[in-house]
Amino acid sequence: MAKLKKLEDYREEIDQCVKCGACRAHCPAFGAVKHEGRVARGKIALADALLKGDVEMEDRFLLDMSQCLLCGSCCAQCPNKVPTEDIVAATRLKIAEEKGLSTFGKGVATVLKHQGLLDVLAKSGGKLSNLLFKALPENSGMKLRFPAPFITADRTLPPVASKPFRDRHPEFIKGDAGQPTVLFFTGCGINYMYPDSGDAMLKALKFIGVNIIIPKDQNCCGLPAVSAGAAETVETLAEKNLAALSKHQYDYIVTACASCNAGLGKIYPEMGDEFVDYESKVKDIFVFLVEQGFAEKLDELPKSEVQKRVTYHDPCHLRTRGITKEPRQILKALPQVDFVEMEDAGTCCGLGGTYSVYHYDTSKEIVAKKANFIKESGAELVATDCPGCIMQLQDGINHADGQQRALHILDLVAEALPG
Ligand code: SF4
Ligand code: SF4
After folding, report:
1. How far apart are CA 191 and CA 214, in angstroms?
2. Which of the following CATH numbers is that of domain 7-100: 2.40.10.350, 1.25.40.10, 1.10.1060.10, 1.10.1780.10?
3. Among the atoms of ligand 2, which is closest to the Cα of residue 355?
4. Angle at which helices 115-127 and 103-113 pack, to 10 degrees?
5. 72 CA to middle of ligand 2, Å?
6. Is 45 in the pocket of ligand 1 (CB under 6 A)?
7. Could you tell me the pLDDT band of residue 47, with boundaries at 50, 70 and 90?
């Protein structure tokens, strides 16, 4: 039985916070609103007080715990590597256990637990796209025509695919003899919102000749439910995915979504021995491609006459797992890309799962800084490795009246490959 870690399991880590405050300067939520409850030190003190029974789960407490992006920037700077994002996530689970899920949390839990319902909603959204959304200029996304619960009207959204990625392709795609077999865990973002990036990933995988499995009955990884505090949903999804993936023989599970990578590669292995294999088998697509010598193959392609200036945004769920080099390595090797680093490429974009739903104003402030760094870099494109970040970055750029486009690195990879 898959079981998420509880707040009580973090007793030792909580005690390791020495209240030095080194995390303050690196917390995007604290940067936007200077309040101690926003920063790691304050949240750890609250979690500690909760465990000791010194604080009630009253409104102020709930607000402080909701004001965390789970971005891990604090942990990276912390002398004792206190995992604040895990402690906050565990506190949210405890809150939900005792007080029940919020209305939004209930919605997330219901939709994610029933893949069929998610499928129907997404397909209806795709079919009714023209009715529900208005397109923004120059292909920079869509906005809702009518107000909807939890989505403000000024938010840029990607169009919902009229045909999800997993419906576009067979479950098995044969590669060259002697090549490894990879299982593509698509995640919801690629399946429903960015299926072309999934197609681009297939093009890259076919280029190197690997065998590909795209399990039809895979589910959401459950990360949005972690952020919402919906423990039972996360555990159910982990078990469903284990059952769906275990039907196949594969060498690696590849992801093109930072959140799925962290869900399967970090959170699942903490949930039970049955997931231990995932720690080594789950690979981000760019880590996998680099290991397969893909960057060298790209170097052999003729340089394009027209160069695109591209910068890179590090998704938190890859940065905190130490995956920063490989996406850049692939970008730099692309024949049409003139790569440029932006300032603070590793800071959170402000999405943070449920954070941007509950605190959209602060979320916009955080991404506004990012949009400015993108502009200052001189890049026309900001590439990344996470559908959620693409959506948030484009929203921030549009709010700043920027001309840049956010996209998946895979879209640029597919553009560079022949055929
Ligand atoms: S979380 Fe780490 S950096 Fe922040 S106050 Fe505690 S020990 Fe210091
Ligand atoms: S995880 Fe991110 S938002 Fe939360 S306290 Fe740490 S730095 Fe701040």
Report:
1. 11
2. 1.10.1060.10
3. 3
4. 100
5. 6
6. no
7. very high
**Does 35 score more than 90 pLDDT?**
no
Q: Where does CATH 1.10.1060.10 sit in the chain?
A: 7-100
Q: Please report which ligand is nearest the Cα atom of 89.
A: 2
- The CATH number of the domain covering residues in 295-416: 3.40.50
Percent of the chain at pLDDT > 90 equals 79
Test site for ligand 1: of 15, 43, 80, most ligand atoms within 8 A of the Cβ: 80
> Distance between CA atoms of 347 and 315, rounded to whole angstroms?
8
pLDDT tens for 230-247 read 999 999 999 999 999 999
CA of 163 relative to ligand 2 center, distance in Å = 36
Task: Please say if the pLDDT value at position 144 is more than 60.
Answer: no
Atom of ligand 2 nearest to the CA of 40: 5
Share of the chain above pLDDT 70, in %: 92
334 close to 412: Cβ distance less than 8 angstroms? yes
pLDDT band at 108 (very low <50, low <70, confident <90, very high): confident
Structure tokens at 147: 């107000």
Nearest CA to ligand 1 atom 2: 78
- With DSSP H G I counted as helix, E B as strand and the rest as coil, what are the percentages for the chain, rounded to 5? 55, 10, 35
pLDDT confidence bin for 216, thresholds 50/70/90 = very high
Residue of the CA atom closest to atom 4 of ligand 2: 68
Residue 402 above 90 pLDDT?
yes
Delimiting residues of CATH 3.40.50.1860 domain(s) in the chain: 165-291
Task: For residue 216, give the nearest of 238, 195, 237, 245 by alpha carbon.
Answer: 245
Q: Is the CB of 49 within 6 Å of ligand 1?
A: no
Q: Average pLDDT of 217-228?
A: 92
Ligand 1 and 100: CB distance under 6 A: no
Return the pLDDT at 137.
62
Q: From residue 50, how far is each of 61, 200, 412 by CA, in Å?
A: 10, 47, 48
CA of 43 to the centre of ligand 2 (A): 9
User: For the structural domain made of 165-291, what CATH number should be given?
Assistant: 3.40.50.1860
How remote is the CA of residue 14 from the centroid of ligand 1, in Å? 10
Residue 419 to residues 63, 137, 207, 299: CA-CA distances in angstroms?
52, 29, 10, 17
